[in-house]
Amino acid sequence: MNKKKKKLKIVKPKTLKQKFQFRFAKTKPRYRKKKPVFAFNYYLCDSKYCSFETIKTFKSFHVLFRNLRGMSSLTWQKIIEAHQYHAHEVNWNEKNLPNDIKDLQYNEEIKDLSLFQFKAFDSSSRVIGLFNYENVFEIFGIDKVHDIYGKRK
Q1: Cα separation, 82 vs 93, whole angstroms
Q2: How far apart are the first and last CA of the chain?
Q3: Is the model's pTM score more than 0.85?
Q4: Across the beta sheet with 88-90, what order do the strands follow?
Q5: What is the mean pLDDT of each run of 10 residues along the chain (153 residues)?
Q6: In 10 A of CB 130, how many CB atoms?
Q7: For residues 101 and 49, what is the distance between their CA atoms, to the nearest angstrom?
Q8: What are phi and psi of 110, to 5 degrees?
Q9: Which of 22, 23, 54, 62 is deepest in the core (most CB within 10 A)?
Q10: What one-character-per-residue DSSP string does the chain give?
Q11: 70: burial class by Cβ within 10 Å (0-12, 13-18, 19+)?
């Protein structure tokens, strides 16, 4: 009875970045062809500047979710092309970007992804987040007074 036991090889799981790295080409990102899917894995619930607590009225919440539902019937390409959404990338090093968001760029899972914003419920508010490696929009929070490009008090 001299049977050798096979050693089990333990495989280290891939990170999201490694697993989906092949999905992005140098041309337009794949998410532009897709309809919005939203996630809150990196939502900054304790942020003084960009949590949903900055939305003060029920009506604003209602408009936000009604508009997100409406956006869900469009592709990201159409949203970006439509002026009403003011959708575009944001530089991680933007001067007035809240530190809560700036700190997320050091997270290994998302550090190489581009920050993005769009208008969803009133003229000055923006939803801030990024597209993860599965082309899902990760919402970080709300820039209630569109202050990324203004002067934070």
Answers
A1: 26
A2: 78
A3: no
A4: 38-39, 137-143, 126-131, 115-118, 88-90
A5: 56 52 52 89 87 84 89 93 91 84 87 89 85 90 75 46
A6: 22
A7: 10
A8: -125, 0
A9: 54
A10: --PPPPPPPPPPPPPHHHHHGGG--SSS-GGGGSPP-EE-TT--TT-TTTSGGG---HHHHHHHHHHHHHHTTS-HHHHHH-GGG--EEE-TT-TTS-HHHHHHTT-TTTTTSPEEEE--SSSS-EEEEEE-TTS-EEEEEEETT-GGGS---
A11: exposed
CA 129 to CA 149: how far, in whole Å? 16
The Cα–Cα gap between 21 and 23 comes to: 6
- The CATH T-level fold of domain 31-149 is YaeB-like fold (3.30.2310)
Residue 150 has which token pair? 């203004």
Taking the C-alpha atoms of residue 127 and residue 125, their distance in angstroms, rounded to an integer, is 7
